[in-house]
């Protein structure tokens, strides 16, 4: 934006100074001013591209050096240029990457790419303009329109000045006319500068508002996605959306829209002015407009065919990258050639019309029409290039909007309000509960059982995904397709997710300490005092361990910090128990300890749960029947059904699946 403001005035000052100094008396005449502005229109595109000239020269020189080094190499082999890559070549990537073999990733990527297609570019552009703010859009358009009108007014003033200067007789009258016209030109120049600055201000304010709005919408949509969708989205794709796509929307899209609007106004102003000067030119507008739109439509229809559905490792191959770039350059040259044909035809028709009207038109008005005719070519080229770039970058908005169309999880704080102090008993009941098979859990079919207050129940299954699925159902990471889950008589489907998840406690198999202080890991909602925290740490035999830390309760926990490795896996599970005790848990889920876990800490954990949480309902989730022999009852899951539910002593005496699993476990230990 700074270059677009400074470079025009630099060109204007240089051209004015050159023409003034060329005259012997340093007298500025209307003809010289008119010629200055004509040269300004011709020099402006060159000055805008001057800063890239040195870079292009360096790149060209480097390319020639590399090409020469390759051609004169002694080990040049024609086999290296074979179009089909060798299978044993170390520089080639494998034909199939691991991510492409993942069906869920492939389907989700396809869904993310194809979901917004029904909206098209116009729909995505409308979404961006709504985020931009219609008031900023209107103000920016008015500012650009004002700049265009002032520019035409300056040229018209010079034409009038040139015509009036021919009728001036004396020197004093000529000086008076010169001073008055220069004053008006100065005021118009200041007005144009103010309008340019105002357009830049409105554009920056609107683009910042759009970026912030789209970023917040994207973040909110991603945070509200269910866990099943998160596990099927490719992390690099999501990371590119937050980084690369947002960068294009923040940096490139506003400037391209500004350039697109300026070029469109410049083309329309040129056509209207030429039509006003030469009314017969209006007869050629329809066929010329048809040719221009045909070229734009042809480029837009050819571009999608260049996007080949290739795996990421294929796109990394130099040969295919060069092919895509070569096709893009060919397409650009193809479009520019046809635009030059349209421009040449237009200029030819303008010249014919002016030749036919030389008797009725002044020389100044003819020069004005030709000057605007010359400007159309550069404006058409920039308009076409900017249209293609804008259409490509608007797709970034489409990819962001696609996340708002994906299925969201339930409301965090909505639904009916749970009774005060819920849950007070911890009674758990599954009533004909069923789920659909998904990416993170197998399906449950008619699951029905009831657990009383304070009961300690072991949940055993052949496969860990079934016990994991039970946790997902209780935390509503997976929604029910039929039936219900009741906690103290309240259907968890009617409770907000934050309310539900804040009252459920879990001791995972692989515990994780989150970034923050040690106290925040144990009491994340700050419900308890420091004295209560120390008391619970002492009950869990972790007080001395916490006192050894430099900051004690306020010691920072980071993934790479020493405090993160200061606690063993078993002690981290004890910290999860501390969190449950401080939260006055009424329903606790305990996963089976890992095989490499600390047996002493696990035995301590089991004893503390039984002694410190006598009224809490506890579910011990395991694949090892030996680890749930201390529970009141055992629930055996198989193929999504609750096949057995009774005390361990009774299940052992009968010929049950639990007894079979116990025997298999004992044979495995032997």
- And the CATH topology of the domain at 120-303 and 333-406? ABC transporter transmembrane region fold
| CATH homologous superfamily designation of the domain at 120-303 and 333-406 | ABC transporter type 1, transmembrane domain
Strand order of the largest sheet: 6-9-10-3-11-12
Distance between the termini: 77 Å
Number of β-strand runs: 12
Instruction: Provide the β-strand percentage band.
Output: 5-15%
Shape: elongated
With helices defined by DSSP (H or I, 4 residues minimum), what is the helix count?
24
CATH class wording of the domain at 120-303 and 333-406:
Mainly Alpha
Whole-number mean pLDDT = 77
What is the CATH architecture assignment of the domain at 120-303 and 333-406?
Up-down Bundle
Gyration radius from CA atoms, angstroms: 38 Å
Query: Biggest sheet, open or closed, and with what strands and sense?
Result: 6 strands, mixed
Transmembrane segments: 27-48, 136-161, 181-204, 267-296
InterPro entries: ABC1_TM_dom, ABC1_TM_sf, ABC_transporter-like_ATP-bd, ABC_transporter-like_CS, ABC_transporter_C-like, P-loop_NTPase
GO cellular component, one term: membrane
Protein name: ATP-binding cassette, sub-family C (CFTR/MRP), member 13
């Amino acid at each position: 934006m700074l270059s677009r403001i400074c470079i025009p005035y630099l060109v204007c000052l240089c051209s004015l100074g050159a023409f003034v100094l060329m005259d012997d008396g340093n007298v500025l005449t209307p003809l010289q001013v008119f010629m200055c502005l004509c040269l300004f229109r011709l020099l402006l595109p060159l000055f805008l591209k001057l800063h890239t000239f040195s870079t292009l020269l360096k790149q060209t020189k480097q390319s020639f050096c590399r090409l020469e080094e390759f051609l004169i190499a002694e080990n040049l082999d024609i086999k290296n240029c074979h179009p089909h890559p060798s299978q044993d070549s170390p520089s080639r990537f494998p034909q199939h990457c691991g991510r492409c073999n993942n069906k869920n990733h492939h389907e989700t990527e396809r869904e993310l790419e194809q979901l917004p297609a029904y909206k098209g570019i116009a729909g995505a552009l409308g979404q961006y303009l709504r985020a931009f703010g219609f008031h900023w859009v209107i103000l920016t358009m008015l500012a650009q329109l004002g700049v265009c009108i002032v520019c035409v007014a300056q040229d018209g003033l010079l034409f009038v000045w040139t015509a009036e200067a021919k009728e001036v007789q004396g020197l004093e009258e000529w000086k008076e006319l010169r001073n008055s016209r220069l004053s008006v030109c100065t005021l118009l120049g200041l007005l144009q500068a103010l309008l340019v600055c105002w357009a830049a201000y409105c554009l920056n304010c609107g683009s910042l508002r759009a970026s912030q709005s789209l970023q917040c919408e994207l973040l909110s949509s991603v945070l509200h996605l269910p866990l099943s969708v998160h596990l099927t989205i490719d992390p690099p794709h999501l990371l590119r959306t937050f980084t690369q796509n947002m960068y294009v929307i923040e940096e490139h899209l506003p400037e391209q829209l500004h350039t697109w609007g300026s070029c469109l106004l410049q083309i329309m102003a040129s056509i209207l002015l030429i039509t006003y000067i030469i009314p017969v030119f209006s007869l050629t507008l329809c066929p010329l407009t048809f040719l221009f739109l045909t070229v734009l439509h042809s480029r837009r229809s050819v571009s999608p065919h260049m996007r080949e559905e290739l795996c990421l490792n294929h796109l990394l191959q130099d040969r295919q990258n060069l092919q895509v770039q070569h096709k893009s350059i060919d397409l650009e040259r193809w479009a520019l050639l046809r635009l030059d044909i349209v421009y040449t035809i237009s200029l030819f028709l303008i010249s014919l019309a002016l030749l036919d009207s030389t008797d009725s038109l002044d020389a100044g008005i003819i020069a004005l029409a030709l000057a605007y005719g010359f400007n159309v070519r550069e404006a058409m080229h920039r308009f076409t290039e900017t249209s293609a770039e804008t259409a490509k970058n608007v797709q970034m908005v489409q990819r962001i909007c696609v996340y708002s169309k994906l299925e969201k999880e339930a409301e965090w704080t909505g639904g009916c309000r749970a009774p005060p102090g819920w849950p007070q008993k911890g009674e758990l009941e599954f009533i004909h509960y069923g789920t659909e098979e998904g990416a993170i859990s197998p399906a449950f079919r008619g699951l029905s059982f009831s657990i009383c207050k304070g009961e300690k129940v072991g949940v055993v299954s052949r496969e860990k995904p079934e016990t994991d699925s039970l946790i997902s159902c209780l935390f509503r990471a997976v929604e029910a397709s039929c039936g219900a889950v009741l906690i103290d008589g309240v259907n968890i489907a009617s409770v907000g997710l934050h309310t539900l998840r804040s009252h459920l406690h879990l001791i995972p198999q692989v515990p994780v300490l989150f970034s923050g202080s040690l106290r925040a890991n144990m009491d994340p909602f700050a419900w308890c005092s420091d004295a209560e925290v120390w008391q619970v740490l002492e009950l869990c035999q972790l007080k001395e361990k916490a006192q050894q830390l430099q900051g004690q309760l306020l010691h920072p926990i980071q993934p790479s910090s020493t405090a993160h490795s200061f606690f063993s896996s078993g002690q981290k599970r004890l910290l999860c128990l501390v969190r449950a005790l401080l939260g006055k848990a009424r329903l606790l889920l305990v996963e089976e300890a890992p095989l490499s876990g600390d047996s002493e800490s696990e035995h301590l954990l089991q004893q503390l749960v039984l002694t410190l949480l006598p009224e809490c309902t506890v579910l011990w989730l395991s694949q090892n029947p030996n680890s749930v022999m201390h529970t009141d009852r055992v629930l055996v899951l198989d193929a999504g059904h609750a096949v057995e539910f009774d005390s361990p002593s009774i299940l052992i005496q009968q010929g049950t699946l639990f007894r079979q699993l116990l025997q298999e476990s004992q044979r495995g230990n032997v």
